[in-house]
Design a protein that fits this description.
The protein has a 7-stranded mixed sheet with strand order 1-7-6-2-5-3-4, with helices on both faces. The protein has a two-stranded antiparallel ribbon with strand order 8-9. 50% of the residues lie in helices and 9% in strands. Mean pLDDT is 87; it is low at 152-163 and 347-354. It is globular and about 85 Å long. Helix 2 (29-48) crosses helix 5. The protein is an alpha/beta fold. The chain folds into 3 domains: 23-126, no CATH class; 172-439, Glycerol-3-phosphate (1)-acyltransferase (3-Layer(aba) Sandwich); 441-565, Orthogonal Bundle (Arc Repressor Mutant, subunit A).
Length: 566
């Protein structure tokens, strides 16, 4: 892991817009949507088999769920003809059930026609509407707007808002395998898989991609974000395709996976958060959503089937960790986590950050505070989780070259084997989690929160988590000398893990311990109304919110550090 930060903007690896894969895809959007619809249809038929009654049951299930969605959970972004479309589907299905008796073959053909209508509609809905001119405008707006906020905070005087003294690179530190990422993006196709802690992540990663001189990536964005027209503009401009999480039926899920797989195979660099959603607990994701991840493996196998055996047909998985001192949504996220985990034992309160105004207010606060963030680019892997070198060659644990293609061969041929590919997906998921932990960058805020929560937990060993969180705040305090000694103990262990390549640390952890603790206290939960950790008048450590302290503590779980406090 490089210790230096990226302090400049790279030249683009593809200077001409027409060469961007997403632009090529946009030009072929109509044909691409048709291809996705047809392949999705074939995938569904592969699952339902040749029995028309099984397909009929799947179509009826889809119809039922969609009508329920329209009635119980409509969104402004839904098409105007939504009800009409599903009414026609219902009429067609009823006609087949009550009309003239058909042969099994004819009945099957009619059901397939209905299936194709649905997958075509889903494909059109999911597909990105990327426009290069909109992308460039959005990129400049984000960079300009955030930089102005940053300078307003750090340069005194009225003219500071127009100053260029500070750039986003001063605020957002980019570290890790940036050169390898750029090199591989010119050779094959990148699938970037970041951790997910905040709604700011999508904007942040989009800016990182631009700074690194990479062409736009495609990524899945929640359809709900398209409810607001300004958000819809920015999402489309940044290459987003739409993901409707209300739709859980087989037909939609297969169409979504097909879109991702075909786009990767087309050569579009892709991004998705393998955790599926923001981490509710504050922990680095351990259980990943493997659906979209599996599409990278499918695309790799399909490339080999198409004869793309050189590096141009190779897909590279790049883990990324986003490291914050504080997360805007932490109070709501940890309440969700505790509510789900404890069920009736924990009582959920209202979300504090539910409006666009509050999000905008957060962005102003975030960029006008002194708190830094960092983005760590991990070492690239192939779809089996093997590291690759800068030339895209896969390497085993001893650094010897291996050939990914060999892992998709049966009886001398490249074959599709669902069970085998599920195993590869599981293996890749485990490797991504391992890499997340290795490139996770420890901040002072993580360290002080972890130490404080572990000391409090150790003092109250008979209490479970939910009783611990309900402890009266006036009963919780930690002597500063004891706290400082524990912080040093933890830091020593973290540095030992770093020496083994099992974790990373921010440079500010080299400060003297008193200064390091002050830095952590100043930054942890700095925007929250109730601070998770502060000093009282006597200099002891106290908390105003135990659940928030737990959230920020959780960033360092998964390393066995708890043993230091037993």
């Amino acid at each position: 892991m490089e210790e230096k930060y990226l302090k400049h903007k790279y030249d683009p690896i593809l200077p001409k817009t027409d060469e961007w894969p997403v632009v090529k895809l946009a030009r072929e959007r109509k044909d691409f949507v048709k291809k996705v619809a047809m392949e999705s249809q074939d995938r569904v038929l592969g699952i339902t088999g040749e029995d028309p009654d099984v397909l009929k049951e799947e179509l009826e299930t889809t119809l039922y769920r969609e009508k329920l969605r329209i009635k119980q959970n409509p969104w402004a972004v839904d098409p105007d003809d939504e009800e009409d479309f599903w009414r026609e589907v219902k009429a067609n299905l009823l006609g087949l059930n009550t009309g003239p008796k058909l042969t099994e073959k004819k009945k099957s053909e009619e059901y397939i026609k209905i299936l194709n209508r649905i997958t075509t509609r889903y494909s059109e809905e999911i597909a990105s509407n990327f426009k290069a001119t909109h992308y460039k405008f959005t990129r400049s707006v984000v960079t300009y707007g955030f930089s102005r906020l940053l300078n307003a905070a750090r340069v005194k005087g009225f003219r500071s808002i127009f100053s260029n003294q500070y750039t986003l690179q001063d605020k957002i530190q980019i570290t890790g395998e940036t050169d390898q990422l750029r090199e591989l993006a010119t050779k094959g196709t990148i699938v970037m898989v970041p951790t997910h802690f905040s709604n700011l992540d999508s904007i942040l990663i989009g800016w990182i991609i631009s700074v690194l001189g990479l062409p736009p990536f495609i990524y899945g964005a929640g359809l709900n974000l398209f409810n607001i027209s300004i958000f819809a503009y920015f999402m489309n401009a940044l290459g987003a395709y739409k993901v409707d999480r209300r739709k859980k039926n087989l037909l939609y899920l297969e169409t979504l996976k097909t879109y991702s797989k075909e786009a990767i195979q087309f050569g579009c660099h892709s991004l998705f958060f393998p955790g599926g959603t923001r981490s509710r607990s504050g922990k680095i994701e351990k259980k990943l959503k493997l659906g979209l991840l599996s599409t990278a493996i499918e695309a790799q196998r399909a490339n080999y089937q198409d004869g793309k055996n050189d590096v141009s047909g190779k897909i590279f998985i790049v883990p990324v960790t986003i490291n914050y001192h504080f997360v805007l949504e932490a109070p709501g996220l940890i309440r969700d986590h505790l509510s789900i985990t404890g069920q009736e034992r924990y009582y959920k309160e209202n979300d504090e950050f539910s409006t666009s105004y509050k999000i905008s207010k957060f962005l102003v606060k975030f960029f006008t505070k002194g708190s830094d963030i960092s983005v760590s680019i991990g070492r690239a892997m192939d779809v089996l989780g093997n590291y690759v070198d800068n030339d895209g060659r896969s390497l085993d644990k001893k650094g010897r070259q291996i050939h990914t293609r060999d892992y998709f061969i049966s009886d001398g041929q490249i074959t599709e084997d669902q069970q085998r590919e599920e195993e590869y997906t599981n293996r890749l998921g485990v490797r991504i989690v391992e890499e997340f932990h290795k490139i996770n960058r420890v901040f002072s805020s993580h360290l002080v929160a972890f130490v404080a929560f572990e000391i409090i937990q150790q003092r109250n060993r008979k209490l479970d988590l939910f009783d611990l969180i309900r402890l009266p705040e006036e009963e919780i305090f930690i002597d500063y000398v004891e706290f400082k000694q524990a912080c040093q103990l933890l830091l020593d262990e973290i540095l030992a893990l770093k020496a083994q390549g099992l974790i990373d640390t921010a440079p500010h952890l080299s400060k003297a311990m008193d200064e390091l603790i002050d830095d952590g206290l100043n930054n942890v939960g700095m925007y929250h109304a109730k601070r998770p950790l502060i000093k009282d008048k006597s200099g002891n450590l106290v908390t105003e919110d135990m659940s928030l302290l737990y959230f920020y503590h959780n960033r360092l779980t998964g390393y066995g550090l708890e043993k230091l406090f037993k």
